[in-house]
Amino acid sequence: MPAIAAPAGDLGRxxxxxxxxxxxxxxxRDLEHPQAGGAELYCQSVxxxxxxxxxxxxxxxxxxxxxxxxxxxxxIDVERSGGTFGVYPAALARLLRDRHDIDAxxxxxxxxxxxxxxxxxxTPVVQVVHHVHQRQFPLxxxxxxxxxxxxxxxxxxxxxxxxxxxxxxxxSTRDEAWEVLKxxxxxxxxxxxxxxxxxxxxxxxxxxxxxxxxxxxxxHKRLHLLLDALPTLRAAHPGLILDVVGDGxxxxxxVRHAAExxxxxxxxxxxxYVTAMKRDRLLSTAWLxxxxxxxxxxxxxxxxxxAHGVPAVAFRVPGxxxxxxxxxxxxxxxxxxxxxxxxxxxxxxxxxxxxxxxxRERARAWAARFSWDATAELLARIVTAEMDRLGNRAPGRRPxxxxxxxxxxxxxxxxxxxxxxxxxxxxxxxxxxxxPESDGPYRDGPYHGGPYHGGTVRAGDDFGRAVAVLYGxxxxxxxxxxxxxxxxxxxxxxAATGEDLLVAAVRCARPDAVxxxxxxAATG
Length: 524
Hints:
- By secondary structure, the protein is an alpha/beta fold.
- Helices cover 33% and strands 18% of the residues.
- The strands form five sheets. Strands 3-4-2-1-5-6-7-8 form an eight-stranded mixed β-sheet, sandwiched between helices. A four-stranded antiparallel β-sheet has the order 16-19-15-20, sandwiched between helices.
- The chain contains 16 helices and 20 strands.
Protein backbone atom coordinates (compact mmCIF):
# COMPACT_ATOMS: atom_id res chain seq x y z
CA MET A 1 0.00 0.00 0.00
CA PRO A 2 1.44 3.42 -0.95
CA ALA A 3 2.39 5.54 2.04
CA ILE A 4 1.20 9.07 2.74
CA ALA A 5 3.42 11.55 4.51
CA ALA A 6 1.90 13.77 7.17
CA PRO A 7 0.89 17.27 6.00
CA ALA A 8 3.76 19.73 6.24
CA GLY A 9 1.75 22.68 7.47
CA ASP A 10 -0.58 25.18 5.83
CA LEU A 11 0.31 26.26 2.31
CA GLY A 12 -2.47 28.65 1.50
CA ARG A 13 -5.55 30.56 2.45
CA UNK A 14 -7.97 28.65 0.24
CA UNK A 15 -7.45 25.48 2.25
CA UNK A 16 -8.35 27.50 5.36
CA UNK A 17 -11.64 28.64 3.87
CA UNK A 18 -12.84 25.02 3.67
CA UNK A 19 -12.96 24.75 7.48
CA UNK A 20 -16.36 23.44 8.56
CA UNK A 21 -17.45 22.63 5.00
CA UNK A 22 -18.51 19.09 4.03
CA UNK A 23 -16.48 17.87 1.05
CA UNK A 24 -17.13 14.41 -0.38
CA UNK A 25 -14.45 12.62 -2.41
CA UNK A 26 -15.50 9.85 -4.79
CA UNK A 27 -12.84 7.41 -5.94
CA UNK A 28 -13.08 3.90 -7.38
CA ARG A 29 -10.63 2.52 -4.79
CA ASP A 30 -8.88 3.68 -1.63
CA LEU A 31 -5.43 2.89 -0.30
CA GLU A 32 -6.69 -0.25 1.48
CA HIS A 33 -7.64 -1.77 -1.85
CA PRO A 34 -5.22 -4.49 -3.04
CA GLN A 35 -5.02 -2.77 -6.45
CA ALA A 36 -4.43 0.73 -5.10
CA GLY A 37 -2.05 2.92 -7.07
CA GLY A 38 -1.24 6.49 -7.92
CA ALA A 39 -4.85 7.65 -8.29
CA GLU A 40 -5.62 6.45 -4.77
CA LEU A 41 -2.50 8.10 -3.37
CA TYR A 42 -3.52 11.36 -5.08
CA CYS A 43 -7.09 11.24 -3.76
CA GLN A 44 -6.25 10.48 -0.16
CA SER A 45 -3.22 12.76 0.02
CA VAL A 46 -5.44 15.69 -0.97
CA UNK A 47 -8.44 14.60 1.13
CA UNK A 48 -6.20 14.28 4.18
CA UNK A 49 -4.97 17.83 3.78
CA UNK A 50 -8.52 19.13 3.33
CA UNK A 51 -9.38 17.43 6.63
CA UNK A 52 -6.28 18.87 8.33
CA UNK A 53 -7.46 22.33 7.27
CA UNK A 54 -10.76 21.78 9.12
CA UNK A 55 -13.03 20.50 6.36
CA UNK A 56 -15.43 17.64 7.12
CA UNK A 57 -14.15 15.13 4.59
CA UNK A 58 -15.79 11.90 3.45
CA UNK A 59 -14.42 9.41 0.94
CA UNK A 60 -16.82 7.01 -0.74
CA UNK A 61 -15.18 4.06 -2.46
CA UNK A 62 -15.56 0.37 -3.29
CA UNK A 63 -15.28 -2.36 -0.68
CA UNK A 64 -12.91 -5.25 -1.36
CA UNK A 65 -12.96 -8.37 0.81
CA UNK A 66 -11.66 -8.16 4.37
CA UNK A 67 -12.03 -4.39 4.69
CA UNK A 68 -14.21 -2.39 7.06
CA UNK A 69 -17.27 -0.65 5.71
CA UNK A 70 -16.68 2.49 7.78
CA UNK A 71 -13.30 3.70 8.95
CA UNK A 72 -11.67 6.91 10.12
CA UNK A 73 -8.37 7.34 8.25
CA UNK A 74 -6.18 10.37 9.02
CA UNK A 75 -9.18 12.63 9.51
CA ILE A 76 -11.17 11.21 6.57
CA ASP A 77 -14.47 9.37 7.05
CA VAL A 78 -14.07 6.47 4.64
CA GLU A 79 -17.18 4.55 3.57
CA ARG A 80 -16.77 1.46 1.41
CA SER A 81 -19.62 -0.18 -0.48
CA GLY A 82 -20.04 -2.15 -3.68
CA GLY A 83 -17.53 -3.86 -5.91
CA THR A 84 -15.91 -2.92 -9.21
CA PHE A 85 -19.18 -1.76 -10.74
CA GLY A 86 -21.54 -1.76 -7.77
CA VAL A 87 -19.69 1.15 -6.19
CA TYR A 88 -21.24 3.56 -8.72
CA PRO A 89 -24.95 3.14 -7.86
CA ALA A 90 -24.01 2.82 -4.18
CA ALA A 91 -22.17 6.16 -4.32
CA LEU A 92 -25.09 7.91 -6.06
CA ALA A 93 -27.51 6.55 -3.45
CA ARG A 94 -25.30 7.87 -0.64
CA LEU A 95 -25.00 11.31 -2.29
CA LEU A 96 -28.76 11.46 -2.72
CA ARG A 97 -29.34 10.69 0.97
CA ASP A 98 -26.76 13.28 2.09
CA ARG A 99 -27.50 15.93 -0.55
CA HIS A 100 -28.57 18.59 1.98
CA ASP A 101 -25.31 18.22 3.93
CA ILE A 102 -22.78 18.40 1.09
CA ASP A 103 -21.00 21.62 0.21
CA ALA A 104 -18.82 20.25 -2.61
CA UNK A 105 -17.88 17.00 -4.35
CA UNK A 106 -14.49 16.00 -5.72
CA UNK A 107 -15.44 13.39 -8.33
CA UNK A 108 -12.40 11.34 -9.38
CA UNK A 109 -12.91 9.77 -12.80
CA UNK A 110 -10.94 6.51 -13.06
CA UNK A 111 -12.21 5.59 -16.50
CA UNK A 112 -15.91 5.40 -15.64
CA UNK A 113 -17.15 8.56 -13.92
CA UNK A 114 -19.49 8.57 -10.93
CA UNK A 115 -21.97 10.98 -12.60
CA UNK A 116 -22.53 12.83 -9.32
CA UNK A 117 -24.16 15.90 -10.98
CA UNK A 118 -27.16 13.69 -11.79
CA UNK A 119 -28.19 13.52 -8.14
CA UNK A 120 -26.69 16.83 -6.95
CA UNK A 121 -27.95 19.55 -9.29
CA UNK A 122 -26.62 22.93 -8.19
CA THR A 123 -23.96 21.44 -5.89
CA PRO A 124 -20.34 22.36 -6.72
CA VAL A 125 -18.67 19.37 -8.40
CA VAL A 126 -15.03 19.31 -9.42
CA GLN A 127 -14.08 16.46 -11.69
CA VAL A 128 -10.56 15.01 -11.35
CA VAL A 129 -9.21 13.30 -14.47
CA HIS A 130 -5.89 11.47 -14.34
CA HIS A 131 -5.85 10.18 -17.89
CA VAL A 132 -8.13 9.02 -20.67
CA HIS A 133 -8.91 5.29 -20.72
CA GLN A 134 -10.34 4.85 -24.22
CA ARG A 135 -7.39 2.69 -25.32
CA GLN A 136 -7.27 0.75 -22.05
CA PHE A 137 -10.82 -0.59 -21.85
CA PRO A 138 -10.20 -3.21 -24.60
CA LEU A 139 -7.12 -4.47 -22.70
CA UNK A 140 -9.19 -5.44 -19.66
CA UNK A 141 -12.74 -6.21 -20.82
CA UNK A 142 -14.51 -8.15 -23.59
CA UNK A 143 -15.44 -6.02 -26.60
CA UNK A 144 -19.08 -5.28 -25.62
CA UNK A 145 -18.15 -4.33 -22.05
CA UNK A 146 -15.17 -2.29 -23.25
CA UNK A 147 -17.44 -0.36 -25.61
CA UNK A 148 -19.84 0.46 -22.78
CA UNK A 149 -16.92 1.78 -20.74
CA UNK A 150 -15.75 3.94 -23.64
CA UNK A 151 -19.23 5.40 -24.08
CA UNK A 152 -19.58 6.15 -20.37
CA UNK A 153 -16.20 7.87 -20.27
CA UNK A 154 -16.48 9.97 -23.43
CA UNK A 155 -20.00 11.11 -24.41
CA UNK A 156 -21.30 10.10 -20.98
CA UNK A 157 -19.05 12.38 -18.98
CA UNK A 158 -19.44 15.16 -21.54
CA UNK A 159 -23.23 15.15 -21.24
CA UNK A 160 -23.37 14.91 -17.46
CA UNK A 161 -20.53 17.14 -16.30
CA UNK A 162 -21.03 19.82 -18.97
CA UNK A 163 -19.44 22.98 -17.56
CA UNK A 164 -18.07 21.49 -14.32
CA UNK A 165 -14.45 22.48 -13.70
CA UNK A 166 -11.94 19.73 -14.35
CA UNK A 167 -8.71 19.22 -12.43
CA UNK A 168 -6.18 17.43 -14.65
CA UNK A 169 -2.83 16.11 -13.52
CA UNK A 170 -0.73 17.07 -16.54
CA UNK A 171 -0.75 19.11 -19.76
CA SER A 172 -1.21 15.86 -21.71
CA THR A 173 -4.39 15.01 -19.81
CA ARG A 174 -5.60 18.58 -20.24
CA ASP A 175 -5.30 18.21 -24.01
CA GLU A 176 -6.98 14.79 -24.06
CA ALA A 177 -9.84 15.98 -21.86
CA TRP A 178 -10.65 18.47 -24.62
CA GLU A 179 -9.75 16.50 -27.74
CA VAL A 180 -10.90 12.99 -26.78
CA LEU A 181 -13.47 13.39 -24.00
CA LYS A 182 -14.59 16.75 -25.37
CA UNK A 183 -15.11 18.14 -21.87
CA UNK A 184 -15.95 21.81 -22.18
CA UNK A 185 -15.65 22.93 -18.58
CA UNK A 186 -12.52 24.84 -17.53
CA UNK A 187 -9.49 22.54 -17.21
CA UNK A 188 -6.94 23.35 -14.51
CA UNK A 189 -3.53 21.74 -14.03
CA UNK A 190 -3.18 20.11 -10.59
CA UNK A 191 -0.15 17.78 -10.71
CA UNK A 192 0.44 15.10 -8.10
CA UNK A 193 3.09 15.51 -5.43
CA UNK A 194 5.95 13.42 -4.18
CA UNK A 195 7.33 12.70 -0.72
CA UNK A 196 11.02 13.51 -0.64
CA UNK A 197 13.12 10.90 1.16
CA UNK A 198 15.38 11.90 3.99
CA UNK A 199 18.92 12.01 2.72
CA UNK A 200 21.28 10.91 5.48
CA UNK A 201 24.13 10.40 3.05
CA UNK A 202 24.09 6.63 3.38
CA UNK A 203 22.23 5.80 0.17
CA UNK A 204 24.21 5.43 -3.03
CA UNK A 205 23.77 3.68 -6.38
CA UNK A 206 24.71 0.03 -6.65
CA UNK A 207 28.17 -0.89 -7.93
CA UNK A 208 26.71 -2.68 -10.93
CA UNK A 209 24.13 -1.33 -13.40
CA UNK A 210 20.71 -1.55 -11.76
CA UNK A 211 17.28 -0.70 -13.14
CA UNK A 212 14.40 -0.41 -10.66
CA UNK A 213 10.78 -0.29 -11.86
CA UNK A 214 7.94 0.48 -9.44
CA UNK A 215 4.29 0.06 -10.37
CA UNK A 216 1.37 -2.25 -10.91
CA UNK A 217 1.94 -5.13 -13.31
CA UNK A 218 -0.86 -4.55 -15.79
CA UNK A 219 -0.96 -4.85 -19.60
CA HIS A 220 -0.84 -1.15 -20.48
CA LYS A 221 2.43 -0.70 -18.54
CA ARG A 222 4.11 -2.89 -21.23
CA LEU A 223 6.92 -4.13 -19.01
CA HIS A 224 7.50 -6.92 -21.53
CA LEU A 225 9.20 -4.36 -23.78
CA LEU A 226 11.87 -3.81 -21.14
CA LEU A 227 12.29 -7.56 -20.70
CA ASP A 228 12.75 -7.94 -24.47
CA ALA A 229 15.60 -5.41 -24.40
CA LEU A 230 17.41 -6.92 -21.40
CA PRO A 231 19.45 -9.69 -23.11
CA THR A 232 21.10 -7.20 -25.50
CA LEU A 233 21.57 -4.66 -22.73
CA ARG A 234 23.25 -7.21 -20.48
CA ALA A 235 25.73 -8.02 -23.24
CA ALA A 236 26.69 -4.32 -23.38
CA HIS A 237 26.49 -3.76 -19.61
CA PRO A 238 27.73 -6.87 -17.77
CA GLY A 239 26.06 -7.54 -14.46
CA LEU A 240 22.94 -5.51 -15.28
CA ILE A 241 19.98 -6.45 -13.08
CA LEU A 242 16.34 -5.43 -12.93
CA ASP A 243 14.34 -5.00 -9.71
CA VAL A 244 10.57 -5.07 -10.26
CA VAL A 245 8.57 -3.67 -7.34
CA GLY A 246 4.82 -4.19 -7.50
CA ASP A 247 2.29 -6.82 -8.43
CA GLY A 248 -0.79 -7.24 -10.54
CA UNK A 249 -2.70 -9.47 -12.95
CA UNK A 250 0.09 -9.39 -15.55
CA UNK A 251 2.77 -10.80 -13.25
CA UNK A 252 2.43 -14.47 -14.20
CA UNK A 253 2.68 -13.70 -17.91
CA UNK A 254 5.70 -11.44 -17.37
CA VAL A 255 7.56 -13.99 -15.24
CA ARG A 256 6.94 -16.64 -17.88
CA HIS A 257 8.11 -14.25 -20.62
CA ALA A 258 11.31 -13.46 -18.70
CA ALA A 259 12.05 -17.18 -18.35
CA GLU A 260 11.56 -17.69 -22.09
CA UNK A 261 14.16 -14.97 -22.69
CA UNK A 262 16.63 -16.70 -20.38
CA UNK A 263 16.24 -14.05 -17.70
CA UNK A 264 16.35 -15.97 -14.44
CA UNK A 265 15.60 -14.63 -10.99
CA UNK A 266 19.29 -13.78 -10.57
CA UNK A 267 18.76 -11.15 -13.28
CA UNK A 268 15.14 -10.07 -12.77
CA UNK A 269 14.10 -9.80 -9.11
CA UNK A 270 10.30 -9.95 -8.69
CA UNK A 271 9.74 -8.28 -5.32
CA UNK A 272 5.94 -7.99 -5.43
CA TYR A 273 4.31 -5.53 -3.04
CA VAL A 274 6.80 -4.25 -0.46
CA THR A 275 6.80 -1.75 2.37
CA ALA A 276 7.54 1.88 1.60
CA MET A 277 10.84 1.51 3.44
CA LYS A 278 11.98 -1.40 1.26
CA ARG A 279 10.78 0.33 -1.90
CA ASP A 280 12.81 3.41 -1.01
CA ARG A 281 15.84 1.29 -0.20
CA LEU A 282 15.66 -0.37 -3.61
CA LEU A 283 15.20 2.95 -5.39
CA SER A 284 18.22 4.40 -3.61
CA THR A 285 20.41 1.72 -5.25
CA ALA A 286 19.10 2.27 -8.79
CA TRP A 287 21.01 3.76 -11.64
CA LEU A 288 17.88 4.16 -13.70
CA UNK A 289 14.12 3.62 -13.74
CA UNK A 290 12.24 2.66 -16.90
CA UNK A 291 8.54 3.17 -17.63
CA UNK A 292 7.52 1.59 -20.97
CA UNK A 293 3.80 2.41 -20.59
CA UNK A 294 1.83 3.47 -23.65
CA UNK A 295 0.55 6.45 -21.69
CA UNK A 296 0.03 7.76 -18.18
CA UNK A 297 -1.84 10.61 -16.61
CA UNK A 298 1.24 12.05 -15.01
CA UNK A 299 3.97 9.51 -14.28
CA UNK A 300 4.03 9.54 -10.48
CA UNK A 301 6.41 6.57 -10.31
CA UNK A 302 8.92 8.57 -12.34
CA UNK A 303 8.76 11.49 -9.90
CA UNK A 304 9.10 9.14 -6.94
CA UNK A 305 12.26 7.69 -8.51
CA UNK A 306 13.52 11.20 -9.30
CA ALA A 307 13.12 12.07 -5.62
CA HIS A 308 15.80 9.45 -4.92
CA GLY A 309 18.04 10.92 -7.59
CA VAL A 310 17.14 8.26 -10.16
CA PRO A 311 16.70 9.49 -13.75
CA ALA A 312 14.15 7.83 -16.00
CA VAL A 313 13.69 6.37 -19.46
CA ALA A 314 10.16 6.41 -20.88
CA PHE A 315 8.33 6.78 -24.15
CA ARG A 316 7.34 10.18 -25.50
CA VAL A 317 3.69 9.53 -24.69
CA PRO A 318 0.98 11.41 -22.75
CA GLY A 319 1.87 12.05 -19.12
CA UNK A 320 5.38 10.65 -19.28
CA UNK A 321 6.49 13.34 -21.71
CA UNK A 322 5.44 15.84 -19.02
CA UNK A 323 7.02 14.05 -16.06
CA UNK A 324 10.35 13.30 -17.79
CA UNK A 325 12.38 16.33 -18.85
CA UNK A 326 14.26 14.94 -21.83
CA UNK A 327 17.99 15.54 -21.54
CA UNK A 328 17.60 16.92 -18.03
CA UNK A 329 16.01 14.35 -15.72
CA UNK A 330 15.81 11.45 -18.16
CA UNK A 331 15.48 10.25 -21.72
CA UNK A 332 12.40 9.88 -23.93
CA UNK A 333 12.22 7.22 -26.64
CA UNK A 334 10.10 7.97 -29.68
CA UNK A 335 8.99 4.39 -30.44
CA UNK A 336 9.32 0.83 -29.21
CA UNK A 337 12.27 0.11 -31.53
CA UNK A 338 14.24 2.89 -29.84
CA UNK A 339 13.71 1.71 -26.25
CA UNK A 340 16.79 -0.54 -26.05
CA UNK A 341 19.15 2.00 -27.61
CA UNK A 342 17.79 4.76 -25.35
CA UNK A 343 18.37 2.66 -22.22
CA UNK A 344 21.84 1.75 -23.52
CA UNK A 345 22.73 5.44 -23.97
CA UNK A 346 21.41 6.21 -20.48
CA UNK A 347 23.45 3.45 -18.83
CA UNK A 348 26.58 4.55 -20.72
CA UNK A 349 26.13 8.10 -19.44
CA UNK A 350 25.45 6.96 -15.88
CA UNK A 351 28.54 4.73 -15.84
CA UNK A 352 30.63 7.88 -15.43
CA UNK A 353 30.40 8.97 -11.75
CA UNK A 354 30.70 12.69 -12.49
CA UNK A 355 28.03 12.59 -15.18
CA UNK A 356 25.80 10.40 -13.02
CA UNK A 357 26.03 12.89 -10.15
CA UNK A 358 24.77 15.68 -12.40
CA UNK A 359 21.84 13.59 -13.59
CA ARG A 360 20.95 12.61 -10.04
CA GLU A 361 21.07 16.19 -8.79
CA ARG A 362 18.81 17.40 -11.59
CA ALA A 363 16.35 14.56 -10.96
CA ARG A 364 16.15 15.42 -7.25
CA ALA A 365 15.69 19.13 -7.98
CA TRP A 366 12.83 18.41 -10.39
CA ALA A 367 11.03 16.11 -7.94
CA ALA A 368 11.48 18.65 -5.13
CA ARG A 369 9.19 21.06 -6.99
CA PHE A 370 6.16 18.84 -6.41
CA SER A 371 4.44 18.44 -3.06
CA TRP A 372 1.08 17.12 -1.89
CA ASP A 373 0.58 20.35 0.06
CA ALA A 374 0.74 22.29 -3.21
CA THR A 375 -1.60 19.79 -4.89
CA ALA A 376 -4.16 20.24 -2.11
CA GLU A 377 -3.93 24.04 -2.26
CA LEU A 378 -4.39 24.12 -6.03
CA LEU A 379 -7.43 21.85 -5.83
CA ALA A 380 -8.84 23.90 -2.94
CA ARG A 381 -8.71 26.99 -5.13
CA ILE A 382 -10.80 25.27 -7.79
CA VAL A 383 -13.29 23.90 -5.25
CA THR A 384 -13.79 27.22 -3.43
CA ALA A 385 -14.06 29.18 -6.69
CA GLU A 386 -16.82 26.82 -7.86
CA MET A 387 -18.58 27.05 -4.49
CA ASP A 388 -18.58 30.83 -4.72
CA ARG A 389 -19.65 30.82 -8.36
CA LEU A 390 -22.70 28.67 -7.70
CA GLY A 391 -23.46 30.31 -4.37
CA ASN A 392 -23.57 33.78 -5.95
CA ARG A 393 -25.75 32.71 -8.84
CA ALA A 394 -29.25 34.15 -8.99
CA PRO A 395 -31.97 31.46 -9.25
CA GLY A 396 -32.68 30.56 -12.85
CA ARG A 397 -29.87 32.67 -14.28
CA ARG A 398 -26.70 31.46 -15.88
CA PRO A 399 -23.67 33.16 -14.33
CA UNK A 400 -21.88 35.63 -16.55
CA UNK A 401 -18.43 34.35 -17.45
CA UNK A 402 -15.81 37.09 -17.50
CA UNK A 403 -13.55 35.05 -19.79
CA UNK A 404 -13.89 32.85 -22.80
CA UNK A 405 -13.26 29.12 -23.16
CA UNK A 406 -10.01 28.05 -21.56
CA UNK A 407 -8.71 26.87 -24.91
CA UNK A 408 -7.16 30.32 -24.62
CA UNK A 409 -4.47 30.49 -21.94
CA UNK A 410 -1.98 33.34 -21.76
CA UNK A 411 1.39 33.67 -20.06
CA UNK A 412 2.19 37.24 -19.00
CA UNK A 413 5.47 38.52 -17.60
CA UNK A 414 5.93 41.87 -15.91
CA UNK A 415 8.14 43.81 -13.50
CA UNK A 416 7.61 43.74 -9.75
CA UNK A 417 9.67 45.07 -6.89
CA UNK A 418 10.30 42.80 -3.90
CA UNK A 419 7.97 44.99 -1.82
CA UNK A 420 5.08 44.82 -4.25
CA UNK A 421 2.43 42.19 -3.66
CA UNK A 422 1.57 39.82 -6.43
CA UNK A 423 -1.54 40.98 -8.31
CA UNK A 424 -4.83 39.50 -7.13
CA UNK A 425 -6.39 37.78 -10.12
CA UNK A 426 -8.93 34.98 -10.22
CA UNK A 427 -7.89 32.41 -7.65
CA UNK A 428 -7.55 29.72 -10.30
CA UNK A 429 -4.98 31.77 -12.22
CA UNK A 430 -1.33 30.97 -11.58
CA UNK A 431 0.84 33.83 -10.35
CA UNK A 432 4.40 33.70 -9.02
CA UNK A 433 7.68 35.60 -8.75
CA UNK A 434 10.08 34.45 -11.42
CA UNK A 435 12.98 33.64 -9.11
CA PRO A 436 15.76 32.06 -11.20
CA GLU A 437 16.08 28.30 -11.01
CA SER A 438 19.19 26.58 -12.32
CA ASP A 439 17.24 23.83 -14.06
CA GLY A 440 14.14 25.82 -14.92
CA PRO A 441 12.98 26.91 -18.36
CA TYR A 442 13.14 30.59 -17.35
CA ARG A 443 16.48 31.71 -16.02
CA ASP A 444 15.98 35.47 -15.87
CA GLY A 445 17.47 37.26 -12.89
CA PRO A 446 16.64 40.59 -11.21
CA TYR A 447 16.24 43.66 -13.38
CA HIS A 448 18.39 46.66 -12.50
CA GLY A 449 17.21 49.44 -14.74
CA GLY A 450 17.38 50.41 -18.39
CA PRO A 451 15.10 49.43 -21.27
CA TYR A 452 12.87 46.41 -20.72
CA HIS A 453 11.40 45.12 -23.97
CA GLY A 454 10.15 48.50 -25.03
CA GLY A 455 9.66 49.98 -21.55
CA THR A 456 12.04 51.87 -19.31
CA VAL A 457 12.47 51.98 -15.55
CA ARG A 458 14.91 53.94 -13.47
CA ALA A 459 18.44 52.62 -13.21
CA GLY A 460 19.11 51.27 -9.73
CA ASP A 461 15.54 50.11 -9.12
CA ASP A 462 15.63 46.53 -7.86
CA PHE A 463 12.97 45.06 -10.10
CA GLY A 464 12.34 41.37 -10.49
CA ARG A 465 10.02 39.62 -12.85
CA ALA A 466 6.70 38.02 -12.06
CA VAL A 467 4.64 35.66 -14.17
CA ALA A 468 0.89 35.17 -14.43
CA VAL A 469 -0.73 32.37 -16.39
CA LEU A 470 -4.38 33.26 -16.99
CA TYR A 471 -6.90 30.58 -17.93
CA GLY A 472 -9.59 31.52 -20.45
CA UNK A 473 -7.90 34.76 -21.45
CA UNK A 474 -6.52 35.87 -24.80
CA UNK A 475 -3.55 38.19 -25.05
CA UNK A 476 -5.54 41.42 -24.81
CA UNK A 477 -7.77 40.06 -22.03
CA UNK A 478 -4.75 39.00 -19.97
CA UNK A 479 -3.08 42.37 -20.32
CA UNK A 480 -6.31 44.16 -19.36
CA UNK A 481 -6.82 41.90 -16.32
CA UNK A 482 -3.33 42.66 -15.03
CA UNK A 483 -3.78 46.40 -15.52
CA UNK A 484 -7.04 46.24 -13.57
CA UNK A 485 -5.16 44.36 -10.84
CA UNK A 486 -2.69 47.25 -10.53
CA UNK A 487 0.24 46.14 -12.66
CA UNK A 488 2.05 49.13 -14.13
CA UNK A 489 4.81 49.20 -16.68
CA UNK A 490 5.42 46.86 -19.59
CA UNK A 491 3.59 43.54 -19.74
CA UNK A 492 4.79 40.87 -22.14
CA UNK A 493 2.16 38.34 -23.20
CA UNK A 494 2.14 35.22 -25.33
CA ALA A 495 0.08 32.07 -25.68
CA ALA A 496 0.88 29.67 -22.83
CA THR A 497 2.31 26.24 -23.53
CA GLY A 498 1.79 23.03 -21.55
CA GLU A 499 5.23 23.57 -20.03
CA ASP A 500 4.15 27.06 -18.88
CA LEU A 501 1.08 25.59 -17.19
CA LEU A 502 3.04 22.89 -15.41
CA VAL A 503 5.79 25.22 -14.20
CA ALA A 504 3.29 27.84 -13.05
CA ALA A 505 1.11 25.29 -11.22
CA VAL A 506 4.15 24.13 -9.28
CA ARG A 507 5.56 27.53 -8.48
CA CYS A 508 2.39 29.47 -7.68
CA ALA A 509 1.55 27.22 -4.72
CA ARG A 510 4.87 27.79 -2.97
CA PRO A 511 4.73 29.71 0.30
CA ASP A 512 6.25 32.85 -1.24
CA ALA A 513 3.52 32.92 -3.90
CA VAL A 514 0.44 32.08 -1.86
CA UNK A 515 -0.34 35.75 -1.36
CA UNK A 516 -1.66 35.63 -4.93
CA UNK A 517 -4.55 33.45 -3.77
CA UNK A 518 -6.05 36.35 -1.81
CA UNK A 519 -8.73 37.02 -4.38
CA UNK A 520 -11.70 39.32 -3.74
CA ALA A 521 -15.04 37.52 -3.94
CA ALA A 522 -16.06 39.71 -6.87
CA THR A 523 -13.26 38.33 -9.02
CA GLY A 524 -13.40 34.72 -7.76
